[in-house]
Amino acid sequence: MMLTGPSLWAALLACISGLIVLFWKLRSTSSSQLPPGPSPIPILGNFGLPKDFRTKFIRWADQYRDVMTVRVLGMPLIVLNSRRAITEIFEKRAASTFGRPERVMAQELVGLSEDAGQTSDLKLHREYRRLFSLAMSPRAVQAYAPYQIQQFRQVALDLLRSPAGWEGTMTRAVSTIAYRVAYGYDIKDVDDPMLVRANKAMQITEKIVTPGNFLVDVLPFLKYLPEWVPGADFQRTAKVYQAHFAETREVPFRLVEQAMADGTAKPSFVATLLEEHGAEGGQYGKERIMWSAASIHTGGTDTSAAAIHNFLAAMVLFPEVQSTAQAELDRILGKPGRGTSPPTLEDRERLPYCCALLQEVLRWQPVAPFSLPHAMVREEVWEGWTLPKGVIIFANVWAMSRDERDFPHADRFDPTRYLPTASSSSKPTFGFGFGRRVCPGQHLAEATLGAAVLTLLWALRIELPAGVNVEWREEYGVNRPKWFPIEVKERFPGAREILRQSLLQQQTE
Ligand code: HEM
């Protein structure tokens, strides 16, 4: 918490008033018909941060079925446990469930209420979604395919040289893709100030959206304290953060403007929108374009990197799946060797097993096991249960990914579940969220994952050293494995040389 030093009177008063507000809210919500749920542990609620919280959420989903209420610090949270509830509540009642939770520090004080992923302002959110649908459509993202492929050819070479560095190598590749897509900017290396600034912005975001880091989120009226009051140092911190976010948005945007003026701009999200709507951004204005471009790095980096880390874990834990995918590559593209070229994203449509493998990565270890929280913007009643205005509501994606009715032997990594057959067309995919908030970067993300899957499987054989276990981080947010050692070999003699040559050739094109 950022309340330190001689803040004590203010804090004490704040705490007492806060508790009154909390209990008042609690009383008023508990009098309505909330969905059933596990009995709350007084004050702490259901989240004593149990080690096995995922198992708990599966058990609760079995017990309470479609929709349940869990309580954190006595406050109710609604959880949707089934596809039926998601269709009925997140999709059919999307206008009521599209909000985001209120976060005083992040949104009001740091100013992220204008952020595409955080705003609950209907008009603003619509504008962002229109910008994304223009410049992130399946067609628009095709322009970035060569660059995505190029990045993963480099990743394959880096893995051969330094397998232990896989986490950083893959994360750097997706950050680089994000900057190229957003601004046409090529990140030079890990010390590139553009990347350092963006990574710091991501760290700040994580800090300010994590519940419990700032007392002002629990006791919102503290936001009225002027910054000179002892203990109100969060006000100064908020200003520093706000300035950092503004710089992160503005510096690369100005570079695109300059490059467009010089006639040297590369294709990018910002360049596309400024070309389409004029230098001032037309009906949207520059500000909206600036904010939406910034969310490509914030929304797309950690998530895409985690999905690729999960892919790597699947390949070493299920080597027979790795072999089957490689057999498909060889059958369709021809035996690799001298005179052949690595796959491109256009090959995806001829490679159903590799595409199914990608979907299975997102099911087997969903990147966001509880998706992102939405908030009710108005009250709804569903099957007799009240979903009150203002309440946080989220999807139990983890339990759905482990539902044996949809996915027999759900812990097994089995791409055949998603092969294009009559029965697989009804298999749920839920890795990218729901309703009006569904991830606008899905097509870009799938192409990035596709580039990783095709390139790495074509060039490399990746294995787990004997006796090594793969474990997952027990976090509520992004789901990814802990670091583990890997062994990486060329899958055929000359793979390294072909990758190098293809990169040289791409540079001259
Ligand atoms: C494998 C990679 C990715 C995964 C698994 C993923 C997943 C998600 C999920 C679960 C949500 C929340 C949806 C909801 O609230 O219902 C989301 C939202 C979002 N994602 Fe992604 N995402 C990925 C990549 C990307 C990329 C590449 C971008 C770049 C444009 C992006 C931009 C966003 C934005 C801006 C939002 C907020 C949308 C809104 O609130 O309206 N994501 N994503």
TrEMBL record:
<keyword id="KW-0503">Monooxygenase</keyword>
<dbReference type="GO" id="GO:0016705">
    <property type="term" value="F:oxidoreductase activity, acting on paired donors, with incorporation or reduction of molecular oxygen"/>
</dbReference>
<protein>
    <submittedName>
        <fullName>Cytochrome P450</fullName>
    </submittedName>
</protein>
<dbReference type="InterPro" id="IPR002401">
    <property type="entry name" value="Cyt_P450_E_grp-I"/>
</dbReference>
<keyword id="KW-0349">Heme</keyword>
<comment type="similarity">
    <text>Belongs to the cytochrome P450 family.</text>
</comment>
<feature type="binding site" description="axial binding residue">
    <location>
        <position position="439"/>
    </location>
    <ligand>
        <name>heme</name>
    </ligand>
</feature>
<dbReference type="InterPro" id="IPR001128">
    <property type="entry name" value="Cyt_P450"/>
</dbReference>
<comment type="pathway">
    <text>Secondary metabolite biosynthesis.</text>
</comment>
<dbReference type="GO" id="GO:0005506">
    <property type="term" value="F:iron ion binding"/>
</dbReference>
<dbReference type="InterPro" id="IPR036396">
    <property type="entry name" value="Cyt_P450_sf"/>
</dbReference>
<keyword id="KW-0479">Metal-binding</keyword>
<dbReference type="GO" id="GO:0020037">
    <property type="term" value="F:heme binding"/>
</dbReference>
<keyword id="KW-0408">Iron</keyword>
<keyword id="KW-0560">Oxidoreductase</keyword>
<dbReference type="InterPro" id="IPR050364">
    <property type="entry name" value="Cytochrome_P450_fung"/>
</dbReference>
<dbReference type="Pfam" id="PF00067">
    <property type="entry name" value="p450"/>
</dbReference>
<dbReference type="InterPro" id="IPR017972">
    <property type="entry name" value="Cyt_P450_CS"/>
</dbReference>
<dbReference type="GO" id="GO:0004497">
    <property type="term" value="F:monooxygenase activity"/>
</dbReference>
